[in-house]
Specification:
Layout (H helix, E strand, L loop, with lengths): L1 E7 L5 H13 L5 E8 L2 H5 L8 E7 L7 H11 L3 E5 L1 H10 L4 E5 L6 H11 L4 E5 L2 H9 L7 E3 L6 H8 L3 H4 L7 E4 L10 H11 L6 E6 L3 H11 L7 E5 L4 H4 L5 E4 L8 H8 L3 E5 L2 H4 L9 E3 L4 H12 L2 H18 L2 H17 L15
Parallel strand pairs: 1-2, 1-4, 2-3, 4-5, 5-6, 6-7, 8-9, 8-11, 9-10, 11-12, 12-13
Helix pairs in contact: 3-4, 4-5, 9-14, 12-15
């Protein structure tokens, strides 16, 4: 039996929570013992909603990566951990400061800072390490930043179609005051400046003058989310914004949406796109690398040229009013999602990765990118 410590840091959000839950419920307990720890105060927010079977160690380690080492050493030794799965760069730094055990580090955001890339290069030279990239864009950015390509492996996000169907039949849409004929757009969580969430809001606001029942779901809580809420409150009717906060996470909201708007000014995570494709929700996105990697214009989504705020909002508004075009591309995307983003395939790939790391083999042995023929 392989004893694995899943280590979270403050960067963890809905993607890490969902991805971790899929592994905890998907890998056989007779082969893997999964324990979960979190840096500092990350545990309450980041572990909420995970299965009751998880053994957590809230407050076991401090908030800083280096200072976390002493308490993390004690925890790893006491728990007889054999491999560490770090769900963030700071978590990986803390793990390496505390142990020479093999580390699997999860990477989903390709917009690495200089500090991030320096940390990854440092980690690469200190022991057995595998970097799991949720898209080819993440892998390319890491390699361009000097990270050895042989330690980078692409494992696509897993989309739980059962969860999607469950919440599609739920009362969430009614609870949020949405009508059956409303055109419901959604954006990724959390709202950021670089994610183009403000442009998405402007686009839906503009679309509402042509399609009266246009709404935008704004999930999560962040500084940018609060700014958009304040701006929306200062505008005259019609009101299009539906801020859901933390009450309904993205993986539930996407099940009741009609279109996902990815108005990215820079590359971002591919996980929201994967879930939208699986939920039969049309993707309208800026033609940046991380979006265009999965979305082909007028095939499985609609793309627009990134530009100034007003021009981007006008382009998005035009595209989201094309209900026939959205329906056509979403059907194609849903069929592709079954092949590329299956949870069982993702779990199998992680099991192989864990085996590779324990055996001292290259990270990517017998792991094929499920979107290689996409």
């Amino acid at each position: 039996m392989i004893r694995i410590c899943h280590l979270l840091d403050s960067s963890a959000g809905w993607e890490q929570r969902v991805g971790l839950d899929q592994l905890l419920t998907g890998v056989p307990t007779r082969e893997y013992a999964n324990l979960v720890a979190a840096l500092g105060t990350a545990a309450p927010a980041n572990l909420a909603g995970l299965t009751d079977a998880i053994r957590t160690v809230p407050g076991a380690v401090s908030a800083l990566a280096v200072s976390a080492a002493p308490s993390l050493v004690r925890y790893l030794t006491r728990s007889e951990i054999q491999l560490i799965h770090a769900w963030g760069i700071r978590a990986a730094l803390a793990a390496r400061a505390a142990s020479k055990l093999p580390i699997v580090a999860e990477l989903s955001d390709p917009s690495f800072s200089r500090y991030d890339l320096k940390a990854l290069r440092t980690l690469a030279g200190t022991g057995a390490l595998a970097l799991v990239c949720n898209s080819a864009t993440v892998r390319r950015r890491a390699v361009e930043g000097g990270v050895p390509p042989e330690i980078c492996v692409v494992i696509r996000p897993g989309v739980d179609f059962g969860v999607i169907n469950k919440y599609r039949r739920s009362s969430i849409r009614k609870d949020l005051g949405l009508g059956p004929d409303d055109m419901v757009a959604i954006v990724s969580e959390p709202a950021t400046r670089g994610g183009g969430h403000f442009e998405a809001f402007l686009a839906v606001k503009l679309a509402a003058f042509f399609v009266e029942n246009s709404k935008l779901l704004l999930p999560g809580v962040s500084r940018e989310q609060r700014r958009i809420v304040r701006f929306s409150a200062a505008l005259p009717p019609p009101t299009v914004l539906v801020p859901t906060g933390a009450s309904h996470p993205f993986e539930r909201l996407v099940a009741i949406g009609d279109v996902l708007i990815m108005a990215n000014r820079r590359d971002g995570s591919a996980t929201p796109i994967a879930w939208a494709m699986g939920a039969n929700v049309a993707v309208v996105g800026a033609a940046v690398y991380s979006v265009a990697e999965l979305v082909a214009h007028k095939v499985n989504g609609l793309l627009f040229k990134p530009g100034a705020r007003r021009s981007a909002a006008a382009a998005i508004s035009r595209l989201i009013r094309d209900r026939k075009g959205l329906a056509e591309v979403s059907e194609v995307a849903r069929g592709q999602a079954y092949d590329v983003f299956g949870v069982s395939r993702r779990v199998t790939q992680y099991k192989q990765l864990y085996t590779n790391m324990r055996a001292g083999a290259p990270a990517g042995v017998d792991i094929v990118d499920s979107a290689c023929s996409f």
